[in-house]
Prior knowledge:
Layout: H1 2-5, H2 8-13, H3 16-37, H4 43-51, H5 56-66, H6 69-81, H7 94-130, E1 135-140, E2 143-149, H8 150-174, E3 177-178, H9 192-202, E4 205-206, H10 217-243, E5 251-252, H11 272-293, H12 304-332, E6 335-336, H13 338-346, H14 354-363, H15 368-383, H16 389-395, H17 397-400, H18 405-411, H19 421-429
Parallel strand pairs: 3-4
Antiparallel strand pairs: 1-2, 5-6
Helix pairs in contact: 3-4, 3-7, 3-9, 5-6, 7-8, 7-12, 8-10, 8-19, 10-11, 10-12, 11-12, 14-15
Amino acid sequence: MIDRYTLPKMKAIWEPRHKLETWLRIELLACEGLAQRGDIPKEIVSVLRQKAQVDPKRMEEIERVVKHDVIAFLTMLAEQVGPEARYIHLGLTSSDILDTSLAILMQEAADLIIQDLEHLRDVLRRRAMEFKETVMVGRSHGVHGEPITFGLKLALWYTEVLRHLERMRQAKEMTRYGKLSGAMGTYAHLDPSVEEFVCRQCGLIPAPISNQIIQRDRHAHYLTTLALVASSVDKFATEIRHLQRTEVLEVEEFFAEGQKGSSAMPHKRNPIGAENLSGLARIVRSNAQAAMENVALWHERDISHSSVERVIIPDSTILVDYLLTRLTDLIDTLLVYPENMKANLDRSGGLVYSQRILLELAKRGAQREEAYEAVQRLAMAAWKGKGRFMDMIKTDPFIRKYLKAQEIDDCFEPDYYLRHIDLIYKRVFS
Length: 430
């Protein structure tokens, strides 16, 4: 199912061939850095660039025997290059290649996720403008609260996406570090200038200090950022799922021609897209926990993190790319029913305006405790079906002692609650 939605560019980043081509790029740049220092013959670099090619199938055959991916990679290159292969991987350890290449791939993935967030941001902005004045009831604890607009809900999501853009850019920067400092990170067999050259050519920054690996708090930051993005996707999707309930039906996922909702019940139009998003977000969050576990390693390194990262980093970036792409489409095509929003707002017979009555009573001299008791008493009576809240307010002696009929009518106008929308929008979108 993911294959139908995931952007091909994200999938391509984690293809084995692209990974191996990135490994080769780093190895060849290291050779070039060594040649510039005079540590190996300069003419060797052009020979290596002509002869060295990645062959994933052959490497896999070798790895089945040697049980080590980087050794299999180097053996594969040696078969192609011949005697000059002795200049490849001089002074390096496996993690120099693995961690530096992983940094490159994570940068590429971050760029695509940032693009996804920008697309989602733009769709949310457009639809927030579209429904800026579309009145609906706000809810707390799932219970009617006071009037808002659907545009305000979308504007709130818009600001959350802006925060994720900032976080994702920070996470990208936090993982923009490479290392070619050798087995214990001491540069014992490779001058630091080679690391600086390779990183500069790859758009990376040399890690100020490392042991055998780049420290995994960086990767955990990246994965937790993805988990935060996924959690917001889940939040937005959960809201859409609630608003699509039959009893609510204020919005609805687009239902395509020929689409089916249930194998048993032909009438069903289910929020399956939002439900998919909520479910897949759980995987991204659980992957972040695994990234946290990778921070604590033995001494200068062990490889307990390696097997985990081969799953969680490709999976999380692909999933978040998918989640954002599908959510953007869902919101872009979301069906919105303003007439149902108005009907739901009016459903409680004006109970949502209780605070306005309370405050107006207090302004006109009523003691707050007495005013609260009076308004709540009538509200509870309305809840129990003893009459419409507005009608009872108008005939209650205590309330009429402070408020005139027109003043009561004014308290039941939703426009009062929405008079600062322009200011809010200016803060959000300016």
